[in-house]
Design goal:
With 78 residues, the protein is mainly α. Helix content is 77%, strand content 5%. It has one domain. The radius of gyration is 11 Å and the shape is globular.
């Protein structure tokens, strides 16, 4: 998911963001940007623990909030 990767890249770098998102999308069977609300929340939940390690709790909360706003247009009903 390009939007997810782009949102994470400023914080953890483009390479790490791309690898993290690809890996989690593979695990969650997310294949493109046509995602449900449940898939978005599952991906956020999967990415969050790693973000805590790299940027801490406060910054993770900010990133997740911004990410949810960025993904608004991609959401489809579950």
């Amino acid at each position: 998911m390009r939007v997810f990767t782009e949102a994470l890249a400023p914080y953890i770098g483009a390479t790490m963001a791309g690898a993290s998102v690809r890996g989690q999308c593979d695990k969650l069977a997310i294949e493109d940007d046509d995602v449900s609300e449940a898939q978005i929340e599952a991906l956020i939940a999967a990415i969050s623990p790693g973000l805590h390690v790299f940027v801490g709790d406060e910054k993770t909360a900010t990133i997740i909030r911004d990410l949810r706003v960025s993904l608004t247009g991609l959401r489809r009903p579950a």
